[in-house]
Amino acid sequence: MPAPSLPARVLLLAGLLAPSLGGCRYNYVPLIPKPVQVTLPTRVTSATLVRESGTLVLKAQVEGRFEPGYLSAVWFDSARELGRDSVYLDAGQRGATFRLDAPEKGAYRAVLSFGGTVLRQVELYEVQP
């Protein structure tokens, strides 16, 4: 029997190696990955500070997962502290409105914190600070 030609040898070799090469592929590929569990921290999603005649009005909306507690506002005119206030928030009430009597124009700002963590500062500059 004559020796096989070169193309026949390559074909024969590939046929013998084919079963062992098939074991190099993945046996399991998940079609739908597991859902990622995300827990966002407490955050202020909207906060506005406006003047309504002689009163400053601060409205804030808190989102995220949190234990019920107090959202605190600290009021400043430039570097001088004017006052503090807090509102109790829970799953049913996530919004708060704070008011401060301020008949004079000024460089006002309010710092919002929840659970001892500062979340946002809002500013209303009616004069240069």
Write the layout of secondary structure elements.
Blueprint: H1 6-21, E1 43-52, E2 55-63, E3 69-77, E4 80-89, E5 95-101, E6 107-114, E7 117-125
Antiparallel strand pairs: 1-2, 2-5, 3-4, 3-6, 6-7
What does this structure look like?
It is a single chain. The radius of gyration is 33 Å and the shape is rod-shaped. The chain is mainly beta. The model has no long low-confidence stretch (mean pLDDT 85). It is built from one helix and seven strands, in the order αβββββββ. The chain has one helix at residues 6-21, and strands spanning 43-52, 55-63, 69-77, 80-89, 95-101, 107-114, 117-125.
> Radius of gyration, Cα only, in angstroms?
33 Å
SSE class: mainly beta
Tell me the CATH superfamily of the domain at 43-125: Immunoglobulins
**Assigned CATH class of the domain at 43-125:** Mainly Beta
Largest sheet: 4 strands, antiparallel
Order of helices and strands: HEEEEEEE
Q: Note poorly predicted spans.
A: none
Residue share in β-strands: over 45%
Note the overall shape. Answer: rod-shaped
Helix content: 10-25%
Number of helical runs? Answer: 1
User: Assembly type of the shown chains?
Assistant: single chain
CATH topology of the domain at 43-125: Immunoglobulin-like
| Average predicted local confidence, pLDDT | 85
Tell me the span between the first and last alpha carbons. 103 Å
